[in-house]
Amino acid sequence: MSWLGRIVRTGRIAEPADTRPAETVAPPAGVRGSLQVRHIDAGSCNGCEIEIAAAFGPVYDAERFGARLVASPRHADALLITGAVTRNMVEPLRNAVAATPKPRLVIACGDCAINCGVFAGAYGVVGPVSAIVDVDVEIPGCPPTPDQIVAALRSVTGK
């Protein structure tokens, strides 16, 4: 019974929010304070995915700033793309972007998505995300920290 009392006494623990970020990109029409995000791995090493999971986890809690992960591009306002685009992911990436209703945002997360990172010149890599689809927001880092991911999402939601 003591663990239940400790939970009640401690309450919710989360990182304190920084000051409100400046809006870097206008959110899609109809997105006011909330952003439905579909994550797509175009060929990453999974370092960015671990940081994205942390950003949406209980400590950083990106959902408190209005960003929420969804399971389908048809339900999304934005696509969060990680990794250098491989040959096998070119068409699925284009299909996912086409399936996302307009207006939409495309967010390139990590150095690999921005400039292929350590995978530049690899035989299976076609190029960065911007070579395949138009990118609206870039989150640099290898991998970017959960703070950087949350800050980029906050710059879109305005929260």
Automatic annotation (TrEMBL):
Domain NADH:ubiquinone oxidoreductase-like 20kDa subunit residues, every copy: 45-155
Named cofactor requirement(s): [4Fe-4S] cluster
One of the Pfam families matching this protein, by short name: Oxidored_q6
Alphabetized InterPro entries for the sequence: Complex_I_20kDa-like, NADH_UbQ_OxRdtase-like_20kDa
Keyword field: 4Fe-4S, Iron, Iron-sulfur, Metal-binding
Keyword Cell cycle listed: no
Similarity comment text for this entry: Belongs to the complex I 20 kDa subunit family.
UniProt-recorded name of the protein: NADH-quinone oxidoreductase subunit B family protein
